[in-house]
Amino acid sequence: IFLMQVPAIQQKRTVAFLNQFVVHTVQFLNRFSTVCEEKLSALSLRIQQIETTLNILDAKLSSIPGLEDVKFEVSSANVNSVANGPVAQAATDQQTAGSPQSGQNNTQEEGLQKMEEVTENVTTVAKDPRYARYLKMVQVGVPAMAIRNKIISEGLNPDLLE
Predict the structure, then answer these.
(1) Average pLDDT over all residues of the chain
(2) Among residues 71, 153, 80, which one has the least CA distance to residue 120?
(3) Residue 151: CB partners within 8 Å, gap ≥ 6?
(4) What family name appears in the similarity comment (predicted)?
(5) Cys bridge to 158: 80, 126, 148, 153, which one at CB 3.0-4.6 A?
């Protein structure tokens, strides 16, 4: 086929196709951006709600005396028990301290005093600023393996969280 003998494409037709393509593409992009904006605003609202809830929880926890020395015990079998671990441990300590048997109370009080003396001398992971970020992740509910991988990637010892 000799291209000089082929008739040219009509300019009106080419312009019509190009206009149709531009109109459809702009409509698609407008819908896409609207959906993305709605989803981002919903996500932003949800994040704000979570931050508010965390601030309330933090305020409630900071109002409880004696939680500064609580150590976190992470079990690899159940991550959900990590978030409830210190609270459950404190509740257990309060229940045992409030038991009516005075002989056991004295023994338990002496044991608690010895444990407090030991914990005062030892720097816990909870007080280490390098691990504070990871303990916050545990409290929020980030999977343990993700936290462990992040700790390893930063060159820290992941076994200390357990």
Answers:
(1) 74
(2) 71
(3) 131, 134, 157, 158, 161
(4) Belongs to the CCDC53 family.
(5) 148
Q: What are 36's two structure tokens?
A: 């993305």
- The parts of the chain modelled with pLDDT lower than 50 are 77-107, 118-121
* 52-89 pLDDT per residue, tens: 999 998 888 888 877 766 666 665 544 444 444 444 44
- 74 in Cβ contact with 160 (< 8 Å): no
Domain range list for the chain: 11-64, 123-161
Q: Minimal CA–CA distance to 140: which of 89, 71, 79?
A: 79
Q: Please list the alpha-helical segments (H only) found in 65-101.
A: 80-97
- The model's pLDDT over 153-162, given as tens digits with 9 standing for 90+, comes to 888 887 877 7
Distance CA 46, CA 48 (A): 5
The span from the CA of 108 to the CA of 102, in Å, is: 10
